[in-house]
């Protein structure tokens, strides 16, 4: 009975513990592509007129993009909306006409020319820029580097926690869970559209943040 009791206590004292840590690392890369949402908003009391005006200006916009070297397969209609317009006066609603909004999603590979492309588009009749999204078309290698550094951080955390808690760490992890990578994407606002019609547009591309995040679980005893 004595031997059985202490054998049980000894087994319990060596039951492996678990150390679970979270770690992430971010690397920065230069963008090599921009996706611009740009378009035309027209208004008129007659829907047919508003649509016709929008179509005419859209044709000029598309020609401007083509002249700036944007391939047709890099231009896509992302939004086409028709909105009834109303005026409110003294609590009375009166019909004012229609708004036609057509937005194109334009992929630009020559981001050093993005200011000129926007300027020319505005001159051609574009009157709204909803967003500019800067991306890097291939972040796979950078992400792998960030992933490796994130794992080193996780391991160091686990070593620190094991030492602090008086345990010995099993260096081979039990579980490695990779979280979805995140990217910080800078946007240019619609506020520069008016300036673009009178002076050259300067767009700051910033950098793309590529983040790798892991949850790693180790055994300890």
What are the key terms here?
221 residues; alpha+beta; Translation Initiation Factor IF3; Alpha-Beta Plaits; 2 domains; four-stranded antiparallel beta sheet; elongated
What's this model, at a glance?
The protein is of the alpha+beta class. The protein has helices at 2-13, 47-67, 114-123, 140-164, 193-196, and strands spanning 17-29, 33-44, 75-89, 92-108, 128-135, 175-178, 182-184, 208-220. Strands 1, 6, 7 and 8 form a 4-stranded antiparallel beta sheet that branches. It has a 4-stranded antiparallel beta sheet with strand order 3-4-2-5.
Verbal overview:
The protein is 33% helix and 38% strand. The chain has five helices and eight strands, in the order αββαββαβαββαβ. With 221 residues, it is an alpha+beta fold. Helix 2 packs antiparallel against helix 3. The protein has two domains: 16-31 and 137-221, Translation Initiation Factor IF3; 33-135, 2-Layer Sandwich (Alpha-Beta Plaits). Strand 3 (75-89) and strand 4 form a beta hairpin. Strands 1, 6, 7 and 8 form a four-stranded antiparallel sheet that branches. The radius of gyration is 29 Å and the shape is elongated.
Mean pLDDT, rounded to whole units? Answer: 86
Helix content: 25-40%
How much of the residues is beta strand, in percent?
Answer: 35-45%
Number of helices: 5
Rough outline: elongated
Q: How would you classify the quaternary structure?
A: single chain
Radius of gyration, in angstroms, nearest whole number: 29 Å
